[in-house]
């Protein structure tokens, strides 16, 4: 079993990845870390470090002591938060990346996972069925940092043989943890409001179509990518992956089938402009061809699971 370190583990993806990897590799083989204090009890049940990925010395100490085989480097500032503080976003997203990449070389980490995003695309990218290889001129600091990171993944693989693998996640939808400040967060909040019996005010326009994915699919994609033989990973920048594309109106109508009284209003803010620069749907046939990627959750199935899980908690 590989021993893994997760950075930014207390976030939306890290919380679910921690639980899945513990089941798969054993509790003792999953070391988690984050720079914020964990709120979720699950982090008290395993080995957890307070780690700012900008602190190279502490990162080295942890890697030296824990002797991990794989790193899942999730720590980042996301799209909406990044726009509030562009320099900080660049610092965390890029210098954090370099610290992980350099420390991985030093301590001979066998594999690294680093998530990219559909935010690498911009207004000049084809919006429908966006190809794996296409124009990418992002307009957010988040997208610029992800695009640069993809280039560095490719560079570290070819130049130093560091086996670093990456996915361009679309918007991710989950019920265990709240999202951390992205442009697709509305698609999680809407479920919480429906279950609480509250009205929902959407920060995007009703017809803004974006690519999305249920978290179970995203975690499975991540693990399938990481467990594929190295020779199957032909794309060393980052793979397009997707599942569902929908608009706020479409997700609202799907939820309404279960909560007929549920009401929505639209009050677009700065995130509308970010969303408008992103693709509406993604071509992930390269991931399907290279390592067999296929999503399982569509809008109906995801809506049912989200509403059931959240109403059990309520
Ligand atoms: P999140 O904001 O929920 O979690 C990120 C975590 O990183 C937080 O717990 C935060 O405390 C931590 N962090 C931030 N700066 C740090 C630092 N300097 N040192 C250590 N920890 C730090 O984000 P998420 O949704 O879990 O995203 C994880 C990764 O996936 C990010 O790289 C993000 O860009 C990428 N991604 C997410 C989505 C999505 O929809 N959630 C989509 C595309 C890509």
Low-confidence blocks of residues: none
What is the strand tally?
14
Helix content: 40-55%
Strand order of the largest sheet: 3-2-1-4-5-7
Structure write-up:
The model has no long low-confidence stretch (mean pLDDT 97). The chain is α/β, with parallel strands linked by helices. Helix 1 (12-25) packs across helix 7 (215-227), helix 2 packs parallel to helix 4 (86-106) and helix 6 (186-196) packs parallel to helix 8. 43% of the residues lie in helices and 15% in strands. The strands form four sheets. It has a six-stranded parallel sheet with strand order 3-2-1-4-5-7, with helices on both faces. The chain contains eleven helices and 14 strands. Bound molecules: nicotinamide-adenine-dinucleotide (NAD). The site of nicotinamide-adenine-dinucleotide has 30 residues, from helix 1, helix 4 and strand 9.
Structural key phrases:
6-stranded parallel beta sheet; alpha/beta; binds nicotinamide-adenine-dinucleotide; 314 residues; 11 helices
Secondary structure topology:
Layout: E1 4-7, H1 12-25, E2 30-34, E3 47-50, H2 56-66, E4 70-73, H3 79-84, H4 86-106, E5 111-113, E6 116-117, H5 141-160, E7 163-165, E8 167-169, E9 171-173, H6 186-196, E10 200-202, E11 210-214, H7 215-227, E12 239-240, E13 244-246, H8 248-256, E14 264-266, H9 270-276, H10 285-291, H11 299-313
Parallel strand pairs: 1-2, 1-4, 2-3, 4-5, 5-7, 6-8, 8-12, 9-11, 10-14
Antiparallel strand pairs: 11-13
Helix pairs in contact: 1-7, 2-4, 4-5, 6-8, 6-11
The protein binds nicotinamide-adenine-dinucleotide (NAD).
Nicotinamide-adenine-dinucleotide binds near residues 76 and 169.
């Amino acid at each position: 079993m590989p021993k893994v370190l997760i950075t930014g583990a207390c976030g939306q993806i890290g919380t679910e990845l921690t639980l899945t990897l513990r089941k798969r590799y054993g509790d003792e083989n999953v070391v988690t870390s984050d720079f914020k204090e964990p709120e979720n009890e699950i982090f008290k049940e395993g080995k957890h470090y307070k780690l700012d990925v900008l602190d190279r010395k502490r990162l080295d100490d942890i890697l030296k002591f824990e002797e991990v085989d794989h790193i899942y480097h999730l720590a980042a500032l996301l799209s909406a938060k990044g726009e509030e503080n562009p320099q900080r976003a660049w610092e965390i997203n890029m210098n954090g990346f370099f610290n992980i990449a350099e420390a991985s070389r030093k301590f001979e980490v066998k594999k690294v996972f680093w998530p990219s995003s559909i935010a690498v695309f911009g207004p000049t990218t084809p919006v429908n069925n966006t190809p794996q290889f296409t124009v990418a001129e992002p307009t957010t600091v988040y997208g610029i940092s992800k695009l640069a990171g993809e280039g560095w993944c490719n560079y570290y693989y070819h130049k130093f043989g560091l086996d670093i693998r990456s996915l361009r996640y679309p918007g991710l939808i989950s019920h265990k943890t709240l999202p951390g400040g992205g442009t697709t967060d509305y698609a999680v909040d809407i479920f919480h409001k429906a279950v609480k019996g509250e009205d929902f005010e959407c920060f995007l326009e009703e017809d803004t179509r974006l690519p999305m994915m249920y978290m179970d699919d995203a975690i499975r994609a991540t693990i399938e990518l990481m467990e594929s033989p190295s020779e199957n990973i032909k794309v060393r920048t980052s793979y397009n992956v997707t599942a569902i594309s929908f608009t706020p109106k479409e997700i609202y109508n799907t939820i309404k089938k279960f909560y007929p009284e549920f009401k929505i209003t639209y009050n677009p803010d700065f995130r509308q402009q970010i969303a408008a620069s992103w693709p509406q749907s993604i071509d992930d046939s390269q991931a399907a061809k290279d390592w067999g990627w296929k999503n399982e959750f569509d809008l109906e199935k995801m809506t049912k699971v989200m509403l059931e899980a959240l109403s059990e908690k309520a």
